[in-house]
């Protein structure tokens, strides 16, 4: 394995975030958050919503935590409500459910394809005998994995539903990643965390994982390093030697 994947020496398991790491669903989520918060913040006559707000306050966090963080950044206080709130409700949960309606509709209508480079990396590490898991704050993770055609690649998926059932705090707390490592029969030191979000990188660093690998899909390489990443790449295919690429796979 050392000749194939030098940065993963000593690593026995790889724990992947989903949105923005395995699939380009970050774009879907970003658009859904913008569709929610642009008119909402305008109606409250506060500083307008920007793409940077997504990276600063929302990215990688459980849905309702993202709502709370974004509202707090603009000094807006609304009741939490409950997860059963109607999407029209002016509560944290209602706003989160409104955003989720948009995501669910896009996934159903348009589907999603995984990043080719991420699949090359996944293929390489599984051939090398490493165990893999998905750790996502999203409650849509099983639907996204199914839509991308890669659900059968992961026997361990720790998503927002699992976190709620197990009482695990979401990222940037390390608990969901630690739970996935445990389900694989591994320790944190045995595992690499692969993340594109500051909150996920922070979770990997706080959990003292063997490697925290950042994937820069817009959060910024320097910022991911500052959040605790050991290494940042633009695409997971950058982790592979040229000899591991099928002809024409690298542009």
Chart the SSEs and their pairings.
Elements (H helix, E strand, L loop, with lengths): L12 E4 L8 H19 L7 H8 L4 H11 L18 H19 L5 H12 L3 E5 L5 H8 L8 E2 L1 H7 L8 H9 L7 E5 L2 H9 L4 E5 L5 H7 L3 E3 L18
Parallel strand pairs: 1-2, 1-4, 2-3, 4-5, 5-6
Helix pairs in contact: 1-4, 2-3, 3-4
Concise overview:
The chain is of the alpha/beta class and 251 residues long. It has 10 helices and 6 strands, in the order βαααααβαβααβαβαβ.
Tally of DSSP helical segments: 10
Radius of gyration: 18 Å
Quantity of strands, as a count:
6
Backbone structural class? alpha/beta
- End-to-end Cα distance: 25 Å
Helix content: 40-55%
Largest sheet: spatial strand order: 3-2-1-4-5-6
Low-confidence stretches: none
The best one-word shape is: globular
Order of helices and strands: EHHHHHEHEHHEHEHE
CATH superfamily of the largest domain: HAD superfamily/HAD-like
Mean pLDDT over the full residue set: 91
What is the strand content?
A: 5-15%
- In the CATH classification, which architecture of the largest domain applies? 3-Layer(aba) Sandwich
Q: What is the count of structural domains?
A: 2
The largest pleated sheet is described as:
6 strands, parallel
**What is the CATH C-level name of the largest domain?**
Alpha Beta
CATH topology of the largest domain: Rossmann fold
